[in-house]
Design goal:
The chain is mostly beta strands. The chain has 2 helices and 20 strands.
Length: 290
């Protein structure tokens, strides 16, 4: 559990470009290569709005996705993130702090720290803070070569109800405490799902807990064109990115591109936990010749 509440995700007045550079961040090129986005840098991107604040982490393409976007929202108590709506992009919401409810299949499902929400393609969804403290969460959304166009419907409660075809992941909300803990080598893992979706051949989400002084595995490359986003939940970790180990604080985001070496190690004296969203999907169609 985070030990320091992130209540105000606000942009510090007068923050200079030089200060941003001190966090080691620049605007990512397209397609996105393996990159680390530090939590301090993410907080510095935040802009207030009528329901809290919003910090864009990236909005670009990758080797396997035509579009991917990541942001962090702080949602004030009693507020909703938006009106009920739908879009063709699938998305995963990862709750860091607070207590919220997600509209899933015609019902409001309560989620707390460590819980996740999967919003399926073109299905009406909503999200609201039902606690007495700000809710803080990361949102990851994407388009692949399989993503259809936006459907037309009225975003009623009935429009949030959906029975997916066999073998396709439908909308869901999963509480941290409802997911079984298993042992994977010397690590602990909570696997939330591993399935086909409407826009991916495979989408997997899990949390891994690495003991003090241990690594997730030796630096390695996925055997297929998988890509992944890792978000540090707690502990002191280093990520192997672009041939070197780099420190990543809780709340920080790591993108591991296809066919690039990656690993995580715990450099602290307590267990470290992080989430992993991993996908496999046909690459985008090549751009037409000029």
């Amino acid at each position: 559990m985070p030990t320091k509440r992130f209540v105000a995700l606000t942009l510090t007045a007068g923050l200079s470009i030089a200060a941003l550079s001190a966090h080691g961040q620049t605007a990512p090129a397209s397609p996105l290569g393996s990159t680390i986005f530090q939590w301090d840098w993410i907080k510095a991107q935040a802009k207030t709005n009528d329901h809290g604040s919003f910090a864009r982490v990236f909005d670009t393409s990758t080797a396997t996705l035509s579009h991917i976007e990541c942001h962090v929202t702080v949602l004030d108590p009693g507020k909703a993130s938006h009106d009920p709506h739908h879009h063709p992009e699938e998305e995963v919401v990862i709750i860091r702090e607070g207590t919220a409810e997600a509209l899933i299949n015609g019902e409001w499902k309560q989620v707390g720290p460590g819980s996740i929400v999967f919003n399926a393609c073109n299905i009406t969804h909503d999200f609201r803070n039902v606690g007495d403290q700000p809710a803080v969460y990361h949102v990851l959304s994407w388009k692949s070569s399989l993503t259809p166009t936006k459907t037309v419907h009225t975003d009623t409660l009935e429009d949030s109800k959906y029975t997916p075809p066999p073998g396709i992941l439908g909308p869901l909300a999963m509480d941290w405490n409802s997911v079984a803990v298993t042992t994977n080598t010397n690590n602990l893992q909570r696997k939330f799902f591993d399935s086909r979706t409407a826009t991916t051949d495979e989408l997997e989400f899990h949390f891994t807990t690495v003991p003090a002084g241990q690594s997730s595995h030796a630096p390695s490359v996925h055997s297929d064109a998988r890509e992944e986003i890792i978000i540090v939940r707690e502990g002191k970790v280093e990520a192997y990115v672009k041939g070197e180990w780099q420190r990543v604080d809780p709340g920080g985001v790591i993108f591991n591109a296809a066919h690039e070496m990656q690993a995580i190690r715990n450099v602290g004296d307590t267990p470290a936990t992080y989430s992993v969203l991993m996908w496999r999907t046909p690459p985008p169609a090549p751009a037409p010749a000029p």
